Amino acid sequence: MSSDLINPRTSHEEIETGLKLQPKFDRDGLIPCITADADSGEVLMFAFMNEEALRLTIRTGKATYYSRSRRKLWLKGEESGNRLTVMEVRVDCDQDVVLLLVNAEGGAACHNGFRSCFYRAANSDGTLEHVGGERLFNPEEVYGKK
Amino acid sequence: MSSDLINPRTSHEEIETGLKLQPKFDRDGLIPCITADADSGEVLMFAFMNEEALRLTIRTGKATYYSRSRRKLWLKGEESGNRLTVMEVRVDCDQDVVLLLVNAEGGAACHNGFRSCFYRAANSDGTLEHVGGERLFNPEEVYGKK
Asked: Which of A144, B47, B87, B93 has its CA 20 to 30 A from that of B61?
């Protein structure tokens, strides 16, 4: 009996239609991870996971990513307190992307204090407009002045 | 006057809080792109864009990606007819991810015939369960038998 929840990649058909978790990590050992609100469906953030981050997320139910800039595991909310409780972990058809459906404690997933990192929409002339509502916290108070 | 909607990267602050589109493409010239349903918020698919795909998507309002396997632009739905009409293009805080909010003609964004590519959820033992509803089309009829 294998004690590991991450199974090796097999055939294209098994990966796309089968019922075994067979994630594909890229040449850097990472898999893209979309995080969305479990209730509203709203996309909150995007980050990467390595194999350990994916294992930890599934086992603990706390969203854990891999920080490429800091080169280490990143338990979301460790510093800010804005933890993400994972309600569901999904994979896409070819199992090379993960989707987390979460409840966001504190309401803000973005380090800039907004609910979602996607707080700006692009116009056709290359300008952006703010569509992300009010700040839910002041980043300087939470992370210190930069 | 610049006629280009894609502006060069400037300072961290300008990128995170400014109102100019300054997307970051990775070492392969690509930017991750999440596509979600404009009405329900549901995440439908994940793909990559190059600069031309992003420009075309903004200018035409039709979701256009870059296919890494075929190494060319990919107008979504060209083959299957399941086009994605773009209602809004968003960027994340550091402008290295794009989010498209779309209306999906035909209802199915996944090449396997499901509404979303994320039709399976992972259990804690490494098994998956189907959570993606019924198939909206038969892939063999649309793309031919593999």
From this structure: B93
Segment A123-141 shows an average pLDDT of: 93
Asked whether the ipTM of the predicted complex exceeds the cut of 0.90, the reply is: yes
**Quick one: which of B23, B59, B145 has its CA closest to A120?**
B23
CB A137, CB A108: distance < 8 Å: yes
| pLDDT tens-digit map of A73-120 | 999 998 888 899 999 999 999 999 999 999 998 889 999 999 999 999
pLDDT at residue B2 in the model: 43
Give chain B positions within 8 Å (CB) of A37. Answer: 41
CB contact under 8 A, B5 and A124: yes
Q: Where are the alpha helices (DSSP H) in B3-108?
A: 12-17, 51-60
Q: State the best of A22, A88, A92, A95 to mutate against chain B, taking most chain B CBs within 10 Å.
A: A92
- Domain A21-132 in this protein, CATH class: alpha beta
Phi and psi based region of residue A26 (left: phi greater than 0; alpha: psi -120 to 50; beta: remaining): beta
Q: Domain spans of chain A?
A: 21-132
